[in-house]
Amino acid sequence: MDLKMLFMIFVINFSYITLNTIRFMLTMKGYRLIAPLVSMAEITIYVLGLSMVLNRLDDPLNLVVYALGYAVGISVGIKIEDYLALGYIMVTAILPSSTEQLNLPEILREHGYGVTQSFGQGREGERMILEILSPRKNERSLYKLINETEPRAFIISYEPKFISGGFWTKKVRKRNN
């Protein structure tokens, strides 16, 4: 058993899959310059690692270590993407109408969030509906702020693909250039 070779197979596939996961996330978020550059490094590492395993198929442990590097690479890639928190989220917070006196829209605006307020009718009466745009890096603090102010809020979030108009447009363009 060649431990050095097993370690190299693991590290190479770990690196490949970590880059693969990050490149996929960059591609999905529209990073048109950096995603292809990451893919160049990714495919180079992939060919190197795969050739190492294919040339040593006589030892099944090589394949097991290759698969382990794959699994760990995905996990680490996801953690890196969460840390980078690229892009924006759109959060819809639906509040009981009795929360109007809490003035959550103004509290959110004071914290720098873009908020559009409207009213709707729910099963149990009128509801305040807040549409909130936020950088993903602020996602957790936004949820915390909403829950501290109104713990009964119903919250839904998604990632917008296209943003145009409104006071956020200049901020979004600056970050994407």
Automatic annotation (TrEMBL):
Query: What topology does it adopt in the membrane?
Result: Multi-pass membrane protein
InterPro entries per UniProt = DUF2179, DUF5698, UPF0316
Q: Which GO terms describe its cellular component?
A: plasma membrane
**UniProt keyword annotation of Transmembrane helix present:** yes
Q: Which Pfam families match?
A: DUF2179, DUF5698
Lineage, top-rank taxon, reads Bacteria
Domain (DUF5698): give its ranges.
Answer: 21-78
Transmembrane helix among the record's keywords? yes
Task: From the Swiss-Prot or TrEMBL record, state where the protein is found.
Answer: Cell membrane
* Location of the DUF2179 domain: 113-165
Q: Where are the transmembrane segments?
A: 6-26, 33-54, 60-80
Keywords on this record? Cell membrane, Membrane, Transmembrane, Transmembrane helix
Task: Give the family this protein belongs to, as stated in its UniProt record.
Answer: Belongs to the UPF0316 family.
- Stated name of the protein: UPF0316 protein BCR23_13380
Q: List the top taxonomic levels of the source.
A: Bacteria, Bacillati, Bacillota, Bacilli, Lactobacillales
